[in-house]
Amino acid sequence: MLVTVNALPLAVGVLLSCSTTLGEISVYGRLTLGIAWALTQLVVLVAGTWWYENRAASSFAPAAATTAASRSVGGAW
Questions:
Q1: What's the CA gap between 2 and 13, in Å, rounded?
Q2: Helical axes 33-58 vs 2-18, angle rounded to 10°
Q3: What does the alpha-carbon distance between residue 28 and residue 51 come to, in Å, rounded to a whole number?
Q4: Contact, 67 vs 17, CB < 8 A?
Q5: Which residues, other chains included, contact 15 with Cβ-Cβ below 8 Å and sequence gap of 6+?
Q6: Phi/psi class of residue 75: alpha, beta or left (left: φ > 0; alpha: ψ in -120 to 50)?
Q7: What does the DSSP 8-state code read for residue 24?
Q8: What does the DSSP 8-state code read for residue 28?
Q9: Contact status, residue 47 vs residue 1, Cβ threshold 8 Å
Q10: How far apart are the C-alpha atoms of 48 and 71, rounded to whole Å?
Q11: What is the Cα–Cα distance from 17 to 10, expressed in whole angstroms?
Q12: Under a CB-based contact definition with an 8 Å cutoff, are residues 44 and 5 in contact?
């Protein structure tokens, strides 16, 4: 999922880096399209990583065989 979310911004970033005229387009003041896209790509990467980490941490559940109750019921290893 993380790769899928970051694939499009990466592809657009590669296209922008191939054309200096597109990257030099002024968006706001001295902010150019290339810099704005790089910042957007960074935000997408950080947000996607944060979301992935939270989802992975919340879905973690220990296996039944590793709990203290199952060890005492099942005997010694």
A1: 17
A2: 170
A3: 30
A4: no
A5: 22
A6: left
A7: T
A8: E
A9: no
A10: 38
A11: 10
A12: yes
**Phi and psi of 38, rounded to 5°?**
-65, -40
- Tokens read off for 33: 């399209």
Per-residue model confidence (pLDDT) at position 14: 81
Can you say whether residue 33 is alpha, beta or left, with left for phi > 0 and alpha for psi between -120 and 50 degrees? alpha
CA atoms within 13 A on the CB side of 52: 12
pLDDT score for 34: 86
Per-residue confidence of the chain (77 residues) as pLDDT tens digits? 667 777 887 788 788 788 788 888 898 999 998 889 889 889 988 998 898 888 877 766 655 555 565 555 555 55
- Residue 16: CB atoms within 10 A of its CB come to 20
In contact, 45 and 6? CB cutoff 8 Å: yes
